[in-house]
Design brief:
Elements (H helix, E strand, L loop, with lengths): L7 H10 L2 E2 L3 E2 L2 H11 L3 E8 L15 H7 L8 H5 L5 E10 L5 E5 H4 L4 E5 L5 E10 L4 E6 L20 E6 L7 E12 L1 H5 L10 E4 L11 E4 L4 E8 L10 E5 H14 L9 E5 L2 H7 L8 E6 L4 H5 L6 E5 L2 E2 L3 H9 L6 E8 L2 E8 L21 E4 L2 H7 L5 E4 L6 H4 L7 E5 L2 E2 L3 H12 L7 E7 L5 E7 L3
Antiparallel strand pairs: 1-2, 3-4, 3-6, 4-5, 5-8, 6-7, 7-8, 9-10, 9-12, 10-11, 11-14, 12-13, 13-14, 15-16, 16-17, 17-18, 17-19, 19-20, 21-22, 22-23, 23-24, 23-25, 25-26
């Protein structure tokens, strides 16, 4: 018997031609071709550039200052004159993909694609290049919104990831290994997948509720599109599970149910308006049921602790309760719980279905922010620091014996910098222990810290006045 060996792509198309869709017609090769043609121009290549960080032992003319050691954790020493003259050039930091979501230049990608970048370059499918600016980022969901100045761009329409069914065909569009406009196919293998819970790997600390597919995704695909056969965006490709670092059968995408909320908040508010129920929880398991001698459902969210001043405490939830749904949407797993909560903002009212001592209950409560209130979070991004910034010229650098810095002018008396005590003419040399010489570096760091989740949102700024006096300030970015 003669064996016929098909390539993965050919086999996928052959299987597709034999599969029924919606029980009304057969999927054909034309469905894949049409979808690829409709979406490939809506996916871009995103290159990030940064100046290599040279490990510093000193900040020029104020070395071994005890305050500097307090801020940055180690003593500093003077740089040699030859070292001061070296100016590292920007190098390509990373390569990923992005999806055009509006015809005026807004592009969604992964946060890890643009993290730490000083400059971004976007290449369209027609090979046109544009510089990109960062509108906002959300490390918790690994999403970022960037923008280019280009009109009438091709947009991939937004689909509803909640309508996806396991077994449904999808296409992944991106730039793996730099091969632009690459299209691969697969099926939805699972929904609401939590990688850390499933694999036992340490959690990244973010929200994990992925669409799992077997569409081939590799390095460079991050930030690219996952689309259904209608040509609608249903996810942003973001991760693979592999022991080798290359595709091994499992790829993961952030569903558009999360993408739309996060990107919408970033466009409207500059940061994600994230709601909190205020519980510490564990996904229900047979072992937990036996240990706690629980009655009732065999899947759900076990409440391990109630936080003070939280929506859960106001609702009367207690340790040992088992939450099974919020606003009618099941919360059987950690991933489902995270995805459901991600849809809401502080101040939203929700209905919680739960079990206590084997009996079913429901209760209404108002979700809160991470400070226990219902107001929308106000964070100050780089545009609200309250000063004009410019890189100093070579003559100023030589006079002050520094390698470069960012001079402040036109300080707003009500701005964050002035409120921290910084005065006119101050030259910023370092922020949070990192050397800076360009305004974009400060802007990027301010955005990242302001939009991070948890911890104090503070810029620790070190620098020098034109008189040669060194100074150090702490600038809070959150009201």
């Amino acid at each position: 018997m003669k064996r016929i060996i098909l390539s993965a792509a050919t086999a996928a198309l052959f299987m597709a031609s034999c599969t029924a869709q919606d029980n009304t017609r057969m999927i054909s090769q034309d469905d894949f071709v049409r979808t690829a043609e409709q979406t490939v121009n809506g996916v871009v290549s995103v290159k990030s550039y940064a100046t290599p960080q040279v490990r510093q032992q000193g900040y020029d003319n104020y070395s071994n200052d005890p305050l500097l050691e307090f801020f940055f954790g180690q003593p500093r020493q003077r740089q040699s004159p030859r070292r001061q003259q070296e100016q590292p050039r920007q190098q390509q930091l990373g390569l990923g993909s992005g999806v055009i979501i509006s015809d005026d230049g807004y592009i969604v990608t992964n946060n890890h694609v643009i993290a730490d970048a000083e400059r971004l370059e976007v290449t369209l499918n027609d090979n046109r290049n544009f510089p990109a600016t960062v509108v906002g980022t959300d490390p918790t969901t690994d999403l970022a919104l960037i923008k280019i100045d280009a009109p009438q761009l091709h947009v991939i329409p937004m689909g509803n990831s909640e309508d996806l069914r396991v077994g449904e065909w999808v296409l992944a569009v991106g730039n793996p290994f730099g091969f632009t406009s690459t299209v691969t196919s697969g099926i939805v293998s699972a929904k609401a997948r939590n990688i850390s819970t499933t694999t036992g790997m340490p959690s990244s600390g973010g929200i994990e509720s992925y669409i799992q597919t077997d569409a081939a995704v590799n390095q460079g695909n991050s930030g690219g599109a996952l689309v259904n056969l209608k040509g609608e965006l249903v996810g942003i490709n973001t991760a693979i599970y592999s022991s080798t670092g290359t595709y091994a059968g499992c790829s993961f995408a952030i569903p558009t149910s999360i993408v739309q909320k996060v990107i919408g908040d970033i466009k409207s508010y500059g940061t994600v308006q994230r709601a909190y129920l205020g519980i510490r929880f564990i996904e229900l398991s047979p072992e937990l049921i036996n240990e706690k001698k629980l009655n009732g459902p065999t899947s759900g969210i076990y409440v391990a602790e109630i936080e003070e001043r939280s929506a859960a405490m106001a609702a009367g939830l207690a340790e040992g309760d088992i939450i099974t749904a919020i606003n009618g949407k099941p919360t059987r797993t950690t991933a489902e719980m995270q995805e459901v909560i991600t849809h809401f903002s502080p101040g939203d009212e929700v209905n919680i279905e739960y079990y206590r001592d084997g009996k079913a209950y429901s209760v209404e409560t108002t979700l809160r922010n991470n400070r226990g209130g219902v107001a929308l979070t106000k964070t100050n991004d780089s545009g609200n620091l309250g000063a004009k910034m410019a890189s100093i010229d070579e003559e100023t650098a030589r006079r002050l014996q520094i390698r470069g810095g960012v001079a402040l002018s036109d300080l707003d008396s009500d701005g964050l910098l002035a409120s921290a005590g910084i005065r006119e003419g101050f030259i910023i040399l370092g922020v949070n222990g990192q050397r800076v010489s360009k305004p974009d570096q400060i802007n990027s760091m301010a955005r990242t810290i302001a939009q991070s989740q948890g911890g104090d949102k503070v810029l620790f700024i070190s620098g020098i006045y034109p008189t040669g006096k060194a100074a150090y300030y702490a600038v809070a970015l959150e009201e």
